Amino acid sequence: MGASRIGGREDLMSQQRLEVVDLDTAPPVWASLRNEAEAAAQKESALASLLAAVILNHKSLGGALSYQLARKLGDQELREMSIREVAEEAYAANPTLVEIAEADLKAVFERDPACKGYVQPFLFFKGFLALQTQRVANWLWTEGRETLALYLQSRMSELFQVDIHPATRIGRGVFIDHGTGIVIGETAVIGDDVSMLQGVTLGGTGAERGDRHPKIGKGVLLGAGAKVLGNISIGDYAKIASGSVVLKEVPAGCTAAGVPARLVNCPTCEEPARSMDHTLADIVYDYVI
Description:
The chain is an alpha/beta fold. The protein has helices at residues 28-43, 48-56, 61-73, 80-93, 96-111, 119-124, 126-142, 146-160, 272-275, and strands spanning 5-6, 9-10, 162-164, 169-170, 175-176, 182-184, 189-190, 195-196, 201-203, 215-216, 221-222, 227-229, 233-234, 239-240, 245-246, 255-257, 262-265. The strands form four sheets. It has a six-stranded mixed beta sheet with strand order 5-8-11-14-16-17. Strand 1 and strand 2 form a beta hairpin.
């Protein structure tokens, strides 16, 4: 396949031949992503060049993802090819990053009722793209390349309205829905299978340094606009209701709601981050957490 034009300019990254992929041995998500892209290209010819350049011209999820991040993040200061090389370097040094990206992509498909397949989040969902940007930035941070990591954080914030510090530790299978307005601090830790909606803040409570941000357990659901502040723990499978401000620890399996947040049901529903169940129980406990 010859070079394609994306955004009205010659895209040097796409000057490669279509890779032949054995779909019988390809990972399920990657095989599904390619099948969806082929079907979409046949149905919508205006996007055929884009789908080929971003997905179909690559032999692996890591190759496609490095291309997509470079296409989105590249600017006058750091060109697409440079960002692609950085992403590929990260994936080669730590192949687990690609496995984690696959888990993140599955999480979007399984938990977002508006998501019709894998192509949709891979191309368009800024929550997924911001998360993958942070994962590359985190690898750079751990390698001591802090300036470049912070550069990617800045581009992420500018493009996706998602601001996650490169040092933040984030588990796999994380779903960021919509993404707009999410802010996550340097020493925050996010467990596996967490779901969060727009406007979530995982922040500090002042100008103190050191370990100052929340620790979010496995399978936690963070509703839209939820604010969790300080070096506190949110237990596994807890739920933070939309618009709540949490300043103290939340036990595992409990729901916190309000300003300041109170416990409203313990236990909450099973695996709230997977079910995306934002409802609250009628019983309200009489103490502030």
